[in-house]
């Protein structure tokens, strides 16, 4: 399942043209914080030999483990599709918080819907009290809209405490066309990754 953190697309817009020109940048670095997001040439994974594919896979894994984010260049995704996703992302995240929260995910198991800033925190800790301490010290500043395959009847979540399906949550009334365009983007991405 693709986890679409649409807010990240806005940051990618700044890097995407740079990657296409094949600059020497390999990391986006914020000097004030030391936070680094690796810039990965995904074309090497799609077209490269086995050692190159392994190197790209390692870079992706390392990026997610170190910062939780990566920038991908040379994905093969059509530029106009990417731009349209950026445009929709901006429209969605510019909605008032009280509107976005209507589309919040119901359970973490469903992993579909809006995630407000501060709701998630990546940690290897298992103790909820320790996780809360970390959240208080360094809150999660990102927001995202999690989407996935449709229909998703085969992705039912049933546990003793949770009965939920993984259906996407869309602002149909506020953003007509958003659902269709984002699912087209999702499907193009899926096809590009599996061809």
Task: Outline the secondary-structure elements.
Blueprint: H1 6-20, E1 27-30, E2 35-41, H2 43-47, H3 50-66, E3 71-73, H4 79-93, H5 97-100, E4 113-115, H6 128-137, E5 144-146, E6 156-158, E7 163-165, H7 178-193
Parallel strand pairs: 2-3
Antiparallel strand pairs: 1-2, 4-5, 6-7
Helix pairs in contact: 1-4, 4-7
**What share of the residues lie within helices?**
40-55%
Number of domains: 1
Distance between the first and last residues' Cα: 16 Å
Largest sheet: 3 strands, mixed
Which structural class best describes the helix and strand composition?
Answer: alpha+beta
Describe the 3D structure.
The chain is built from seven helices and seven strands, in the order H-E-E-H-H-E-H-H-E-H-E-E-E-H. The longest helix has 17 residues, at about 50-65. It has helices at about 5-20, 45, 50-65, 80-95, 95-100, 130-135, 180-195; strands spanning about 25-30, 35-40, 70-75, 115, 145, 155-160, 165. The strands form three sheets. Strands 1-2-3 form a three-stranded mixed beta sheet, sandwiched between helices. Strands 4-5 form a two-stranded antiparallel ribbon. The chain has one domain. Residues about 1-25 have low confidence and may be disordered. Helix 4 packs across helix 7 (about 180-195). Strand 1 (about 25-30) and strand 2 (about 35-40) form a beta hairpin. The radius of gyration is 18 Å and the shape is globular. With about 200 residues, the protein is of the alpha+beta class. The relative contact order is 0.16.
